[in-house]
Records
---
Amino acid sequence: MAGWLKALAYGAGGVAVAGLAALVALQERLVYVPVLPGLARAYPITPARLRLAYEDVWLRAADGVRLHSWFIPHSPTCRGPTILFFQENAGNIAHRLEFVRLMMQRLQCNVFMLSYRGYGESDGYPSQKGITYDAQAALDHLAQRKDIDTSRIVIFGRSLGGAVGAVLAKNNPDKAAALILENTFTSILDMAGIMLPFLRWFIGGSSSKGPKLLNCVVRSPWSTLDIVGEVKQPILFLSGLQDELVPPSHMKMLYDKAVEHNRNCRFVDFPSGMHMDTWMSGGDRYWRAIQLFLDQYAPEVQSRDGSFKSEIAEDGNLLPYLFQTFVRVYPVLIFFAFDIVLVYFWSTLFTAVDFSG
């Protein structure tokens, strides 16, 4: 009997060790899912399918990896905010185009969509360090563009994208005006214990009470809870209370952590919102919450005459500025010229006519 129990114990231990080894070796495949089951890695559609004008933008991350992205302008004459959008962990940016189309319609904004390394047409393999480089490359590109208002760049991340966005906002307090987080987790360490309950005894984030013996083997911890307290920009938290993947308590914990050091935080929850459909189930209230946040923290920057910042300040081109100035001043010049001619005419007339008798 003792022999059987001993063999059973050894067998269980072997299975546990093998399972743990597999988790360590394959962890990136569990966190990052560039290709959905049954679908190709390629984009199924482009923005053109939704009648959106767009620009293919190719970037180089700091470590040399080539990245693909889409810049989708609202319109040539619209100088609204620019949303730098970071997607969830599964699929590619094409799967978010319907959301982006509605966002542009409701918020009158431009959108920049980045394909993480290993996703879509981007090269490389996903990792926390690598995706952090990718996000920085995207923001640096936007900060140098001449066709947007660079003072109104807003980072928007959903789920994994929220973790990416939080790190980027923390590292760039002067380049991003605000941060929006939707259905984001406190950390991958905490999510591991939720997805695989037996791991919660060995892996956990800063809020976990377990021994955390295996935290050191996790290569993509994405500890958003530790980061969000250091973000200086205003933050909007959008939480779907029916989220079936990330417990809504994670969003509340992130908000509570952020508001300790940042007064410019807003929390909005949506009773019927699930992980991927909060933007649909939230309806008008969802978009109104974002619009009010943008109006307050990424407002339209106007000059003294009520117009947008002049093009001369952006690209050094004098011609548009001089033309606009001429158009404004021309009617005034005509009026004064006519007035001078009229005064001269009457003065000449009175001088020529003898009224003495």
Note: Residues 303-357 have pLDDT under 50 and may be disordered.
---
Amino acid sequence: MEELARESISLLASTSAKPPLDVGPRLGSMGAVFIMLKSALGAGLLNFPWAFARAGGVRSAVTVELISLVFLISGLIILGYSSSISRQHTYQAVVKKLCGSAIGQLCEICFIFNLFMISVAFLVVVNDQLEKCNTLYELATALPKSEMPYHFYTDHRFALVLLCFFLIMPMSIPKEITIQKYTVLGTLAATYLTVSIIIKYFTMPTAPDHRSPLYSSTGAWGSMFSVIPTICFGFQCHEASIAIYSSMENQRLSHWAFVSVVAMIICLVIYSLTVYGYLTFGKTVAPDILMSYSSHDKLMLVARLLFGVSIITIYPIIVLLGRSVIQDPLLSRWRRRGEALMVKLECRSRWVLTVLWIMTTLLIALFVPDISKVISVIGGISAFFIFIFPITLTIWGAVTLICGAFIFGQSTTIAVM
């Protein structure tokens, strides 16, 4: 989400590589389901109405969702089983233990790149919402948008730069993050947006009838496959799933399968309800559904604020996770040269990595045309965590491996083209 942590459980995933959780309360069934929902629900919700349009209609998109659900749940069960036999408590540790150091290093690279692209997606979402939030400036100048003079300080991209350097960066540099990791704003924003989309569909003066497919530029099958990256991004909680499984009180595989099925079905229902956004705007729906609504819409203004604040609190967690994966091998090497030197080098590397991470993601976000391009890339990377790595852990079947490799290649190719 986001994501995708994509929220507080992602931090758990990075720290639970330490000894098993023998102390403190364990997760029950409902707690595990809730944390999986927190991990999955997020910014991906913004892209689902556009995905319905791109898939060629409601029937095609729901069909792909249902088929994908089988592989999504299977992957979660495989990961839980792999964690139980390897006695490891993070995704990367399980892959490294069962598949060797080479595949483990590939997993870490994919993990870092996935976090990096999620950071880009978050900034693209914030940039889109800043572009829409011009109501206050219009009120201050008493001028319509078409007559407002252009100043660099009124450009939404300038506002994004200020936000990154004066708010996000100070929150991202500290070694430990405390308050942000307990946020539930991502889940709240996703739930609020879903309800708002349904309300707007039934309250808007005219809603066109879109029962027939409206978008099929690449043919029926091509259109259906083009929705898979969005599904992978939206349903992706597989990186956090091993940490969740390791934290559960009841770790029987049948119980974990039940938790996985319930969580994925709830996600399916919530994401499918965004079909009302597609039914409202048809093939003209924007890749970010919030961009399809007027900047004066008060109901959607609240959704923009919720997503903006949630991203500002989640982004530092993503930076911390990516930075820790890069720093850990360096710190183990520096520790041999003395504790004092290691502390000094850790501080310098933390500043350098944080500044480079934020500046690079900011530059990419400023020039990406819309969030669909970023989600296509993230969906391709997600195929590794959902399809490819799970099949390397077991002998579930060559079909899953082929599907994962195909989705990665297809979605990445679409994003580049």
Note: Residues 2-7+26-205+221-383 form a domain with the Amino acid/polyamine transporter I fold (CATH 1.20.1740.10).
---
Amino acid sequence: MLVSQALHQCSNEIMQQKQRVRRKKRWIKEKEKRNRAEICEAKFLPEMGQKSLIYAFVARGTVILAEYTEFSGNFNSIAFQCLQKLPATSNKFTYNCDAHTFTYLLDNGYTYCVVADESVGRQVPMAFLERIRDDFVARYGGEKAATAPANSLNKDFSSKLKEHMQYCVDHPEEISKLAKVKDQVSEVKGVMMENIEKVLDRGEKIELLVDKTHNLHEQAQDFRSAGTKIRRKMWLQNMKIKLIVLGILVALILIIVLSVCHGFNCGK
């Protein structure tokens, strides 16, 4: 009975925890939707020809260190607004606004952004961001990027942004193949992580049940010990009562015998 109550209580606690996680996820999704709506209220007004990758920058926090574009428009201000509203729940994020995508990659305190035509899809922009991240870290992985003021790396890194942008535009098939391989690896990794989480989750549940069972076992031992003491005490009390009753009976018999025999002269 005690074990079933403990299992029922454990099941209720697990269900309550899952409900809290679901409510938090819904709240995060609603907040992200509000951010998208606020950002896309600003009308995107590009003044450019057809180009798949339009604008890119590297930022430390909200400080833009280097940027590059060949076109004019207010996409840079919209990209900066998005930068200020990025959610902390993911290291990769994409906003869609007026047939353009604003893709962000967050890594180790730095943000890499590219604005692209929506027809390009997501593989090429993300591959571009990963390329400029690797190049940026290789060049400025020390204190230079950590202390650099705004736009101070334009002279050195703006041309690199242009080179990577041109490469990704000219080699979409190669980028697509690499992206597919990475997606497959990520999918396998995700399945493995999910299985590990399930195992750990089961381990936590089992550990919780073991703790509950251990506590119940200790309580049962205490109950048995207390029961043994009570039974011993009751037995002693019962024996005392029996001895008292027996003594009373012996005394009564003795009194009756003495009264009948007029003392101890029954044999005379």
Note: DSSP finds six helices and seven strands in the chain.
---
Amino acid sequence: MAAADFAGSKQAIAYALCKHLRLDPDAVSSTSIEESDIVSLFSHIVKSSEDEIMKWVEFSSSFVGKDGEHHLLLDNLNQDLSQKSVLLGNGFKPSAADIVVFATVQVFMNHLGEYELQKYPHVLRWMDYIQNVVDFGTTVRKINVAKSVFNPPSHPKKANKEDADPSSKKVVSGQKSVDKSDASVGSKKAAGETNAPENKANPTPAKNNKPSGDKKKSQEKSAGKANEGVTDKAPQKTAEKDSECNVSILNIQVGLIRKAWKHPSADSLLVEEIDLGDGNVRQVVSGLAKYFSPDDLVNRHVVLITNVKPGKLRDIMSAGLVLCASNKDHSIVEPLIPPEGAKLGERISFAGFDGKPEDVLNPKKKQLDKITPDLRTDENGIATYRGIPFTTSAGACRSSVPNADIK
């Protein structure tokens, strides 16, 4: 590819950098964008920058200028991203470096076939994240990232006794008839014994002369019936208990954060105004201040539980719970990302769990405490409940944090 193919990259860089720095994109003239190379354009907008950022700006400049070396540069970028989600730092907040590199790399990546794209899995993961959290305006064409295909495990209903195999019924009924015939033979035998001459030395009533074997069978049969009643009731109680605690009782929906601000009396908390569509807007308090600024969250799509009991957190009312993925030491926390095209307010579904959500969860039952241990992201970052994906009409929800807890 020639440098001319990257003409739109500079416009995307200028627009996204201005948005990132809260500047007016119109303040950068189209003439200065056209006449500047990437390094000088960056320096014109970002007045001062760190050496680490400039290293990536020069990478972008090389990517545009060195025709024929794109694959080698992509290999290096793929390796660098293998252990992190963004180019600088250990978190998820994009920097100016991510903006510049993405705007140049995406042009080349959009010209690759599916086979070649799969050579750069970490670059693809990074690009999918950046293009969904950074505003590049209308000059950038989003890259289509092939999502993993999921075949959720089926959950067949347990067969009732009436639905059992007919052949097994025949075996059981045949066994019963044999038992009956044995019983009748035994009773006849017992009757015959009562007609035998009475032992005068040790007179015993005929009804007490029942053989010990028959008595043992009778006792076993009675015990079997008793145990059968216990085993029948146990699974029923377990099933009822499980149905109260599975994910179907949660109302998990797709939302869009319209506003966000710092909690007035808690440094670790942020307050968000989340749009659920159809005029349904609710206020939610989240412990995300350590990981995101309010501006980072505005216009971000999220996944939240909307049937938790509303209550005050440090005197501010909260009516929802934004679900986030976090690593083991909680140094990285990120709200789950719904797929592009998911509708505001639509309920997240889980294959095999089709129950109706409760109107409001009962805190005394500690239902969330029983369900959240089964919420995790898999090795691909897909959000799951017991291995079953969080599914919307547009696909599965995900995170940049693989093998993470979700709370």
Note: The chain is about 40% helix and 15% strand.
